[in-house]
Prior knowledge:
The chain is mainly beta. Helices cover about 5% and strands about 25% of the residues. β7 (about 200-205) and β8 form a beta hairpin. It is globular, with a radius of gyration of 20 Å. The two termini are about 35 Å apart.
Amino acid sequence: MTPSAPDEPGTGADRPISRKNLLRAAVAAGAAVPLLATGTVALARETGSRGRPLAPTPYCDDGDDPTPDQMEGPYFKPDSPPRTDLVTPGTPGTPLTVSGYVFGRDCVPLSGVLLDFWQADHAGAYDMAGYTFRGHQFTGATGAFTLRTIVPGLYPGRTRHIHVKAQAPGEPVLTTQLYFPGEPRNSTDALFDPALLMNVRAAGGGRQGAFDFVLDVEGGPTDPPTDPPSGSWAPGHPYAAGDRVTYGGAGYRCLQAHTSMTGWEPPGVPALWRRA
Length: 276
């Protein structure tokens, strides 16, 4: 699902307002996000209500499907650094900020989701020796994320795109790509999927993109394990790439630096841990 961007033809401005878009606007305005006992979002207002409070929404169904998956491609590298800003001083290219939210299929925003981004530079080249234009982050309490980067360049056979892996705690990894509207190569790229178009608009000397991921998981807090597992892994511990732990009688090697939390136990988070 992609939220609307005003006054920008061809970028989704004509799409209907959904409950997720209203939630996004409420969060952006600093409003509290009430939850029902079921954990689903209870929006107090809808468009057309003329400011009158409406009854809480008992469930949320926008008709949205989970975000489609796409191939990883040949340029993915594990162990990306934790960072939300991929731009360094003097980096050539058109500045781009991508922001949005990650939701479960029940419209509840998901916190603690791992988002690992990688892309080409302004000339269409990927850095395979280091980690230029590569980095991962985690969504906050509202499910929000922001990535500062540049508009990726073109290379033979592909339209402009940004790669991403998204993983809710203890859930499977979604590997997909984000695309730019109005690109001539969109019509010739065999991988292009219009469902993965960002809303993009000009902003000063750069561009702003927006995209909301919908993961095929239920929202709400992650239940802690009933019994403490055996092993050296522990929640609340800062792990660095290459660290080794044991969990449930097996050994694991850390792939990406992070602070552990309940729900991210090594067997259930392959983006963070690999069986050693």
